[in-house]
Amino acid sequence: MKVQHRWDLFCHVVDNLGDIGVTWRLARQLVVEHGQQVRLFLDDFKAFAHIAPQVQLRAAEQTLAGVQIVPWARQAQATPGDVVIEMFGCHLSETYIAKIGQTSPQPVWLNLEHLSAETWVDLHHLKPSPQSGGVTKYFYYPGFTDKSGGLLREANLIAQRDNWQMQPSARRIAMRALGLPPPPDHALTVLLFSYARQRLDGWLHSMAASERPVALWVCPGPVKTAINAWLDMELQTGQITSRGSLTIYALPYIPQQRFDELLWAADICIVRGEDSFVRAQWAAKPFVWHIYPQEDSAHDRKLDAFLDRYLAEADHDLRDTVVHFWTAWNRGLDLAPAWLEFVGSLPALQRHALKWSRSLQTQPDLASQLINEVQQLGSNRPSLVAAR
Hints:
- It comes from Thiomonas bhubaneswarensis.
- Pfam families: EarP.
- Helix content is 40%, strand content 18%.
- It has helices at 18-32, 45-51, 94-102, 120-124, 157-165, 170-177, 201-208, 224-231, 256-265, 275-283, 298-310, 316-330, 336-344, 346-360, 366-378, 384-387; strands at residues 6-11, 37-42, 62-64, 67-71, 83-87, 108-112, 127-131, 135-140, 188-192, 214-218, 240-243, 246-250, 268-272, 287-290.
- The chain has an 8-stranded mixed beta sheet, covered by helices on one side. Strands 11-12-10-9-13-14 form a 6-stranded mixed beta sheet.
- Helix 7 (201-208) crosses helix 13 and helix 12 runs antiparallel to helix 13 (336-344).
């Protein structure tokens, strides 16, 4: 039987949207699908407003989608919930940590880590980490195997995707809702949501010279700097401009609940961070993951690990095509040759993306697994009497 717990989620926003995107999606799912009480401690309300525009920036406390939202500093006065989730090692205050040790029974304390396809994830998932004061924190790793914590996926997501894509007018309606005209029906549509990147000129020239019209949907973010340099103009939100066969649409920030529609509508998705990375896989579309760069090149190992898993059943030519373009994008290389190869393989890439998405659906979703693990860990929580 499912037990209702009080959950405290903590999110320290690092790269504007990635951390809060995962956190907000998990918080809503815990409330909507699992009937849990969720309180979210957040340090950057302006970044949050990009994906949840209804948020009040200066409210001391508010409730959105059934989730209680409070400023980061309020943890000093808070009594810990039954479950404490530290998103991506965001470091709770010493005051709050001390309260965890003073609460009886002790809360289940988890550090929900970054997603990785590396093999060591399975070995470290749910490993305990003893803390001072007799408190134990557990490391929870999302992942792509049945030995990991799984991926975030709402119960009705796949059905919603399939129903949406069966409606010929869905893409036009979605674009009009954003205040933008839909592209021609025969255009190649490309969603661009990436980190800053140089050397986009060859790629943009290739699309501009294409025989097939190309619609490039550019999300807000640092990559617009390279787009503006190529256009020799400052592209404003909502603006549309064309160069040859290429039409560029400057999108506004999209509420998280609507972002899936952009992925479903695109022929190719170029995404960044973790939330859009996972959503592109559920969209079952050919995609490119612009991985967050790290100083020690750990991102290269992480990228290679995912590609090995993603392409394990792909034929040699398809694997080369994907690796060529992903490598060029992530290493700042000239994109034009790899892009032409990628676009030329779209039918095969689409079949592979759908097969991959279906294989992931056999795995229980992250929120459901989290509920089950919390119940098991919670049954073994020490009381203050036992701790003494």
